[in-house]
Structure formats: C-alpha cells, structure tokens
Amino acid sequence: MLDSFCYIFLLFIIYSFIGYILEITNCSIRDKKLVLNRGFFLGPYLPIYGISCLLMGSFIIRYKDDFFTVFVMSAFVCTTVEYITSYVLEKIFKARWWDYSDRKFNLEGRVCLGNAFLFGIGGVFFTYVLNPFVITVVGKLPILALRIVSIVLMVIFIADVIITIRTLYQVKVSTIKFKRRDVTAELTKLIREELTKKRDIKTNFFVRHMLNAFPWINISDYNNPLSKLKRYSIKSKKKK
C-alpha cells in the first residue's frame, strides 16, 4: 500500500515537473525572453500536469492501439482538468488565473480548442514515448530509494501547499472593504504597510511570486487582496 502510494506520488511529481518545464519553455518562446517564474506554488512543478498524466496513464493507456482514440481522449481529459482547475481557483480566490477569452472557440475563457489540440498531441507523446520511459526508470528504483525520495518530495510539496494557502489566507484577512472603487491612495498605503511588516516578509514574497507567475491574472473581485497587490505592483513598476 505504502509502496504503491509512493510510486504514484513520484510519478505525479515527475510529470508536474515536466509540465513546469514545458510551461516555462512555451512562455519563454512566446514572450521572447527567459521566463522562470511559472506556477501557482513555489516549487518547480505544476500539479495540473501531474494529475492529467496520472489520469491518462490510468484510463487512456488501455487504448494505445488506437492512435486517434488516444489523441481525442487526451484532449478531452486534459481540457476537462484545465476547466475544473480554473473554475475551482476562481471560486476559492475570486481570481481568474488564466483567460483564453481572446482566442477562438473558447469556453468561458477557461479552455480553448487550440489548447485542446496541443493536449491531444501531448497525450500521444505521453502514451507512446514519455510514460513508458518514466515508468521504466522509476520501476528500476530500489524500494528503499523509492520510499525515501517520495517521502522527502511529499514533505516538501505538502509544506509548499500549506505555505501557499496560509499566505493567501493572511492576505485575505488583511482585506479592507472600501466603499469606492477608485481608492488608489488608500490601497497604496495599505500595501506599503503590509510590505514593511517583518512578520509578513514571507507572505509578501510568496504573493509576489504568484503575481509574477501569472502576470496576466484576471481578478474578478476588485477588493480581492490579490487584486490590490497586482495594482500596487503595476503602479510600483511605473514609478521606477
């Protein structure tokens, strides 16, 4: 039981890391500069890729004899995971972490046909090339090594999740309800006070990391703390 869990978790982390590499590569090519800060969490991994790969490895791999089925199901699975992730994040944090509204054939700006096509191609590569290779490598690990590596990575990942959620919670607690929308001065003062508090150094660093990771983040709630930090960040850059 423990070994199976460690095995699955290690695959999850590996695919999450590979997804992170793909994201920074894609963003670097698109922005024509090196982009390293990608991801909701602090570590170099994107769980959305890890979850998608585990699902594909569990359900789609059985259809590997049918290339077209693998392509279609990969596109469907990954697009569904992306949609659900976007929906859940927006409901929890009142923020749209990515938005495809400017792309053709999108669904509520959460997913789009272009990405679904790329997911399909990625799923084909995963099924016939990547997954067999990763499983072979991980399968050669001694049981003790598998347990140690998985547990260490698990502790790091859980700590990352706790720190991220705690950070967002602390910022949310400090939210002030303003009666007017044009409250730039008040917000600037509020954020400056937050940034100068020693006890909030870690919190501010983590929040800035998330804002840097998602520079196009769409905040649906004007009074949301992330919205305030984003507006402050933009204003600070303009003053430099």
Q: Would you mind describing this structure in some detail?
A:
By secondary structure, this protein is mainly α. The protein has two domains: 2-144, no CATH class; 163-235, no CATH class. It has eight helices and four strands. It has helices at residues 2-31, 47-60, 67-93, 113-139, 143-173, 184-196, 201-213, 225-239, and strands spanning 95-96, 106-107, 111-112, 218-219. The strands form two sheets. It has a two-stranded antiparallel sheet with strand order 1-4. It has a two-stranded antiparallel sheet with strand order 2-3. The longest helix is centred in the middle third of the chain and has 31 residues, at 143-173.
What ranges have pLDDT less than 50 throughout 5 or more consecutive residues? Answer: 173-196
Spatial separation of the terminal alpha carbons: 55 Å
Total E-strand runs: 4
Strand and helix order: HHHEEEHHHHEH
Structural shape: globular
Mean pLDDT: 76
Largest sheet: 2 strands, antiparallel
Please, how many domains? 2
Number of helices: 8
* Rg, alpha carbons: 20 Å
Helical coverage, percent range: over 70%
* Largest sheet strand order: 1-4
Structural class, judged by helices and strands? mainly alpha
Percent of residues in beta strands: under 5%
